[in-house]
Design brief:
Layout: H1 2-11, E1 21-23, E2 26-28, E3 31-32, E4 41-51, E5 54-63, H2 70-75, E6 80-86, E7 90-91, H3 93-107, H4 110-124, E8 130-131, E9 135-141, E10 145-150, E11 153-159, H5 161-172, H6 179-185
Antiparallel strand pairs: 1-2, 3-4, 4-5, 5-6, 6-9, 7-8, 9-10, 10-11
């Protein structure tokens, strides 16, 4: 009987909900609701950003539907939320902004990077030194832009779907921050 129910769910297009994931003592819920996005977003994948041997942050990628192909997400970003929950003692604003800069430069050609510089600078200006327990939400609202929140407080909105594609490329592009984190975020059917 269970197999019949499971087969009926799969054939009807229903999805089996993904459970919450716990990494480095941080629990990422299976589903989130985002202001300005009608449908709930589901945890697509989650992983830890390491720098050498140190755990820096736990990352989660939330999407309307499971997706394991980076090229699909980068070509036309759907509504999404990237969560960065910091587990390292402190990451200075300067180090954080240098990392953003490195990620954009590594994944964008010169012309695309130059076209985005004003918005990249706007984005970087929204950050401060982050400490253990701080949580960043980067939320794509299609047709509007990327909303940046720190600990639930909105810092601002960077306009353009093209900016969100460039931002996602930091984790999902050809030169991701780490290959293991890219793979974890694209796990789709097996986050964590």
């Amino acid at each position: 009987m269970r197999w019949i129910l499971l087969a009926a769910m799969l054939l009807s297009g229903a999805t089996v909900p993904v459970a919450a994931v716990e990494l480095a003592g941080v629990t990422l819920p299976a589903e989130v609701r985002v202001d300005g996005i009608v449908q709930p977003l589901r945890l697509n994948g989650a992983g830890i950003r390491y720098k050498f041997i140190f755990k820096i942050y736990v990352a989660g990628l939330y999407l309307p539907a499971p997706e394991s192909r980076a090229e699909v997400l980068l070509a036309d970003p759907p509504p999404n939320r990237v969560v960065m929950h910091f587990v390292y003692d402190e990451v200075s604003r300067d180090k954080l902004n240098a990392a953003w800069e490195d990620g954009f430069r590594a994944n964008l050609d010169t012309a695309r990077y130059q076209a985005l510089v004003p918005r990249i600078e706007q984005f970087k200006a929204m950050f401060r030194t982050l400490r253990e327990g701080d949580e960043v939400w980067l939320e794509h609202l299609p047709g509007e832009g990327t909303r940046v929140s720190i600990n639930g407080e909105v810092q601002g909105l960077v306009p353009g779907d093209d900016f969100n594609a460039a931002l996602l490329a930091i984790w999902l592009g050809p030169e991701p921050v780490t290959g293991s984190l890219k793979k974890a975020l694209l796990a789709a059917d097996n986050p964590g």
